[in-house]
Each structure stands twice: as structure tokens, then as C-alpha cells.
Design a protein that fits this description.
It catalyses: L-glutamine + H2O = L-glutamate + NH4(+). InterPro entries: Beta-lactam/transpept-like (IPR012338), Glutaminase (IPR015868), STAS_dom (IPR002645), STAS_dom_sf (IPR036513). By secondary structure, the protein is α/β, with parallel strands linked by helices. 40% of the residues lie in helices and 16% in strands. 47% of the residues are buried. Bound molecules: glutamine. The site of glutamine has 10 residues, from loops. Glutamine binds next to loops.
Length: 415
């Protein structure tokens, strides 16, 4: 059977291929030599399955899509506090190569613009690292995210370095303002090397899936970044990943994303998928024309907008049967705050003479920490009111249900 996902991606690919608007980036001479027709799409689930179409083995330089991953690396090595002291998390509404600094502190406004990314690069690896150390550290971290050994494109690196006047200017200003102390040329050279790491569209999807999977690699199983780091990176992708088009992007597409001037776009849908698209012709904001179209369509057709949140409230109660001897409440699904609130509300409405109250968790997938606290509090109150509380929990989604004072609900085997 042809996978419906692959079939859908083929359809999307065919519908988008006709779009030939936009221009190649030419401020880096080597990028102007790219084949404008190349086009590829890849999607990796957090279970580690990749679907791809088009020229999915074709490598291109990662460019600005390196920024969220370098941010993840710096956060991992130095911690959020040290990084936040140097680089903020506010969108700029300005182009990626502006010197957008926060008034008062002089912090670059976020790590997705060049000023922020150059500063982040200065904080990679150990303090006082050499240019080579920082560059190697970056390739190594990106390779762990991709699950394969990545390399740098020497000719794009040299081509950009020769024409990197604007990035040198930014770095000198940043150093002059005391944002970092490292040698400005060395930091820019390292940053340009970071941007010249080669990936294909499948790598992007896999790297994205690692962030979607809260930092755990979907096939190597390695924890590459912590949950907190993955969340922080995605938060900044939401507010600043698509430069000055970030607001429109989030309202239309609703997928945390990052684009680069070589024509790639990375998208990450937390808990679901990583997506990579590559097509080199860019719109005036510097985002791939076909890439933007693919993401718009994917979001609409597959309902991937982050704010298409599921309903987490009363549907956590599957059924309630009130008998003469006992009341059974069957719960289901993933229970979070609003689901637990609905359960407590229903418990309160069951006020009756002390009797047996059975809670069947057989169909519950997970209770998060808040829901667990609330649910246990509800059970504690029922017990205090003189009810006999029983729990059916074959998969132990509620381990150690201590109601305080070493009181536990009575375990009942699955009926
Ligand atoms: N938007 C981008 O992809 C920019 C990256 C590029 N290396 C630069 O600094 O100009």
C-alpha cells in the first residue's frame, strides 16, 4: 500500500513545483550559483519515520537555520541564565542583518538575527576556545542532532567570508559595546563556518524531530538537548524564526520555524514532527517562495497549526455510572489541568452518602504533574468524607497514589 503521507507529499510537491517566483540570494557569491529548480520536502515523526519527496539527498548550506541549533548548543553548555544575560528573546520586526539591540542593556534582541547569532557563536564550546574549537564543536553538535556526520562546505565558507563586511561590522559594534570580548574576526569566521555546514532536507527534518521530541533523538535515542532547552529554542523560533515575517507566519502557518538564505526552511511541531523544505528562490523577506507555500498548505491540509489545540476538558470523563452500591467514573486520554478540573467538578457533583467510589484509569494515557496533584487531592477529600475509594489502574498511570498520612486508595483488578 502506498503510504497516504507519501502520496500527500507527492501531490503537494507537484502542485508547488510550478511556482517559479523569487530570486537566488546573491550577496554570498557562491549561493548565486545554486540550481534554482531544486526542490525537496521531508517530514520526520518523533517515532523516527521519515517521508520525503524530490531531491532529498541534495546538500545545501544550512545558513540561518543553524541559529536555533547553535542556540540549543550554547544553552546546553552555559545554561539559560548565562545566555539570557547576553541575548534576549524579543522579536525585532527588522531584517536579519540589522543591529537590533535592546535599549539599556545592548543585548541583541534575539538569537535568530545575525547580531544575536554572532554573539551566541562567541559563547559556544569552552570560554577562550579557538576558532577551530568552536567550529568543530558546532559540527559535532549538529551531527548528533542529524544522527550522521555532517561537514562544512569550504567554498561557500570562503565565499561568504570574503564578502562578510556587514557581519564583521556587526561583530565589531558588539565587541565595542562589550557584548562579547572574543576577537571579532575570529567569531565571524566561526559563525560563517557554522552557516556553511551542509545538510539535506532529510537532515533538517530529523534535526527538527529531535526538537519536537523534547531533545531526544528519534532514532539514535540520544538525549541531545534537555526538554527545557528544546522548549526555549522553539519559543524563540515562534517569535523570531521568520525574521520580520514572523507574525504573519505564525498566524497563517502556526508552526515554529526557521529559514535560511540558501533556501531551506525548518519547521518543528512539538510532540509530532520535524519538517524540512528546500528550494533556493527567495521572497523579498529572504524566505524560500516554494518553502513558504509548502508550509502554508501543510498547516491547512494536515491541521498542523500549533494553536489548533485539542480539547482537553470534559472529554477526559468517559462515563459515570451511579449504582446503589457504588459509583464508577471511567476516565480516558491525556489528563492535564483542564481535564483534572472537569474531573474534580464532577466528583463534587456526586456528593452523596458515603459509599464506594471507583475510578477506572484503564483508558488513561497519562496524567501530567498538575493533573496528578489535583486528582489525588480529589481522592483525599472523598476519603476524608468517608467514601471507600477504589482505583483500577492496570498500567500504573498513577504510580504511588499516596493520599497523605500513608493512606492509599484500594486497588481493584481490571474487571
Ligand atoms: N538569513 C541567513 O540565512 C543569513 C546567513 C548568512 N550566513 C549571513 O550571515 O548573512
Amino acid at each position: 500500500m502506498e503510504s497516504p503521507v507519501r502520496k500527500y507529499l507527492h501531490q503537494l510537491f507537484n502542485d508547488t513545483t510550478a511556482m517559479d517566483g523569487g530570486d537566488l540570494a546573491d550577496y554570498i557569491p557562491e549561493l548565486a550559483k545554486a540550481d534554482p529548480e531544486v526542490f525537496s520536502i521531508a517530514l520526520t515523526t518523533i517515532d523516527g519515520r521519515t517521508y520525503s519527496v524530490g531531491d532529498d539527498e541534495r546538500e545545501f548550506t544550512i545558513q540561518s537555520i543553524s541559529k536555533p541549533f547553535a542556540y540549543a548548543s550554547a544553552l546546553t553548555d552555559r545554561g539559560l541564565e548565562a545566555i539570557s544575560a547576553k541575548v534576549g528573546v524579543e522579536p525585532t520586526g527588522e531584517a536579519f542583518n540589522e543591529l537590533s539591540l535592546e535599549k539599556g542593556t545592548n543585548r541583541p534582541k534575539n538569537p535568530m538575527i545575525n547580531a544575536g547569532a554572532i554573539t551566541i557563536h562567541s559563547m559556544l564550546a569552552e570560554p577562550d576556545s579557538s576558532l577551530e574549537d568552536r567550529a568543530n564543536h558546532t559540527v559535532e553538535f549538529f551531527s548528533r542532532l542529524a544522527g550522521r556526520k555532517l561537514e562544512m562546505d569550504e567554498s561557500v565558507f570562503r565565499s561568504e567570508l570574503e564578502t562578510a563586511d556587514r557581519n564583521f561590522a556587526l561583530a565589531h559594534m558588539l565587541r565595542n559595546l562589550g557584548v562579547f570580548e572574543e576577537h571579532a574576526h575570529q567569531v565571524v569566521a566561526g559563525y560563517v563556518a557554522q552557516c556553511a555546514i551542509k545538510v539535506n532536507v532529510r537532515d533538517l527534518a530529523v534535526m527538527g524531530a529531535t526538537l519536537a521530541n523534547r531533545g531526544m533523538h528519534p532514532f539514535t535515542g540520544e538525549r541531545v538537548a534537555s526538554r527545557d532547552v528544546a522548549r526555549q529554542v522553539l519559543a524563540v523560533m515562534v517569535s523570531a524564526g521568520m525574521y520580520d515575517a514572523s507574525g504573519t507566519w505564525f498566524s497563517d502557518v502556526g508552526i515554529p520555524a526557521k529559514s535560511g538564505v540558501s533556501g531551506g526552511i525548518l519547521g518543528v511541531l512539538p510532540g509530532q514532527v520535524g519538517i524540512g523544505v528546500f528550494s533556493p528562490r527567495l521572497d523579498p523577506k529572504g524566505n524560500s517562495v516554494r518553502g513558504v507555500n509548502v508550509f502554508n498548505k501543510l498547516s491547512q491540509d494536515m491541521g498542523l497549526h500549533l494553536l489548533n489545540a485539542g480539547i482537553f476538558g470534559s472529554n477526559t470523563i468517559r462515563s459515570v455510572s451511579e449504582g446503589d452500591d457504588e459509583t464508577v467514573m471511567r476516565l480516558q486520554g491525556v489528563i492535564q489541568f483542564s481535564g483534572a478540573e472537569a474531573i474534580l467538578h464532577r466528583m463534587a457533583s456526586l456528593e452523596c452518602d458515603p459509599g464506594t467510589m471507583v475510578f477506572d484509569l484503564t483508558k488513561v494515557t497519562r496524567l501530567d504533574a498538575m493533573a496528578r496533584r489535583m486528582f489525588l487531592e480529589g481522592l483525599r477529600r472523598l476519603t476524608a468524607d468517608g467514601h471507600r475509594v477504589e482505583l483500577i489502574d492496570p498500567d500504573e498511570v498513577l504510580p504511588d497514589p499516596d493520599l497523605g498520612g500513608s493512606t492509599y486508595p484500594i486497588r481493584r483488578e481490571t474487571p
